[in-house]
């Protein structure tokens, strides 16, 4: 009996000793930030100072515009202290996840950060699809993260929101955001210089994902191959586009890894332009491992193609 009582006491004491570190670990779990795309994950991690955990719904290499959420994503939304989105209808599927998460727990408006609200937007329009834009999204073209200059404001807003959910990490977050902004500015100077010789260069894009990139680097997108999002071009459209490309001296066709390549190759064969595959997001190509390397890759690849003789 004494052995039994001693064993029970010893086991209880051992359980208390072992439980202490695990209980502390549970108490110290960093707040969860859920973002919609790998680009936002890269920026959020860069400015987090290790104060939060960041998870993305769309995985690297996947097309956010055709993303289909899974039931397991509802739990991520429910557990998130902060949800960061592109907005402008680009990640419209998030709204359904938020509604579903609301069935089991309240998701408050202040938990959702829409980064589009402080951006100088292009192609501002109503809900209808403009024939020129080929985009079926919301109030404007949503690909604003492809102007790297926008990332300074984006990172600052994310950092501000992170401080709200992880106030103990305020200094680390501020330092990380400052480092990111400095690195971004230095690289932007280099990227701009590399594409400066091609200022005003006429290009064609398959998908309307590049107006912010073109504005930043002074490129002229003369037309789109895709007449509307997800709609393949007709033979008549391709014939007319080939004529306009020759007349404008187009030397590069901007193509994304997710898009069908047949129309771009057809136009390249008939105009002498070269198809250049650019990464619209982190992970879309092997070299684009984070937000800054995304532009390292895109700028280098495009400059390489445009530098070739006509």
TrEMBL record:
Residues 1-19 form the signal peptide. Keywords: Signal. Pfam families: ZnuA. The keyword Signal applies. GO terms for molecular function: metal ion binding. It comes from the Bacteria. InterPro entries: Bact_metal-bind_prot9, ZnuA-like. The keyword Cell inner membrane does not apply. SUPFAM superfamilies: Helical backbone' metal receptor. One of its GO terms (biological process) is metal ion transport. PANTHER family: ADHESION PROTEIN, HIGH-AFFINITY ZINC UPTAKE SYSTEM PROTEIN ZNUA-RELATED. This is Zinc ABC transporter substrate-binding protein. It comes from Methylobacterium durans. The lineage of its organism: Bacteria, Pseudomonadati, Pseudomonadota, Alphaproteobacteria, Hyphomicrobiales.
